[in-house]
């Protein structure tokens, strides 16, 4: 996982200015495992940077993606999620609770796709959908409730 210093170095390497807002975004994203949505990062940024714009969140995320520090996930039709782990892995989104989490890809996936296609594959996005195990067990709990309980 990258550090704030590595992050600012990458931004600088693109010829861009290091602003306190960009550093703030790096701090919010660094080490995150929960795949925050752009809206969530925007809300968190607002606390310390009340003048931050949505466009700054996106443009900074785009820079970080271009420099290989961030994955921008379009797993959901109407929101984007950020993942600061650039290592190839797949994502799962639960259709019931909306939770997004990592699932591993078989080792050497990029190499295998590169070999099979003859094209240099540098990154891959795999999106999986279903009902997560937490939701399935919650459903089972509900079914076990004694008869007579009000069910909405
Ligand atoms: Zn779920
Ligand atoms: Zn992930």
Please state the second-level CATH architecture of the largest domain. Orthogonal Bundle
User: What structural class should be given to the helix and strand makeup?
Assistant: alpha+beta
- Percent of residues in β-strands: 5-15%
Q: Runs with pLDDT <50, length 5+? A: none
Largest sheet: 3 strands, mixed
Measure the end-to-end span.
44 Å
Fourth-level CATH superfamily of the largest domain: Winged helix-like DNA-binding domain superfamily/Winged helix DNA-binding domain
**N-to-C order of helices and strands:** HHHHEEEEHEH
User: The CATH topology of the largest domain, please?
Assistant: Arc Repressor Mutant, subunit A
Number of helices: 6
Tell me, briefly, the overall form: flat
Tell me the domain tally. Answer: 2
Strand order of the largest sheet: 4-3-5
Summarize the amount of helix as a percent range.
Answer: 40-55%
- In the CATH scheme, the class of the largest domain would be Mainly Alpha
Bound molecules: zinc ion
Number of DSSP strands? 5
Rg of Cα set? 19 Å
What does this protein structure show overall?
The protein is α+β, with helices and mostly antiparallel strands. The protein has two domains: 1-85, Arc Repressor Mutant, subunit A (Orthogonal Bundle); 87-146, 2-Layer Sandwich (Dna Ligase, domain 1). Helices cover 43% and strands 12% of the residues. The protein has six helices and five strands, in the order H-H-H-H-E-E-E-E-H-E-H. The chain has helices at 4-13, 20-29, 38-48, 54-66, 109-117, 133-144, and strands at residues 71-73, 81-83, 90-94, 100-103, 127-130. It has a three-stranded mixed sheet with strand order 4-3-5, with no helix packed on it. It has a two-stranded antiparallel sheet with strand order 1-2. Helix 2 (20-29) packs across helix 3 (38-48). The chain binds zinc ion (2 copies). The site of one zinc ion has 6 residues, from loops.
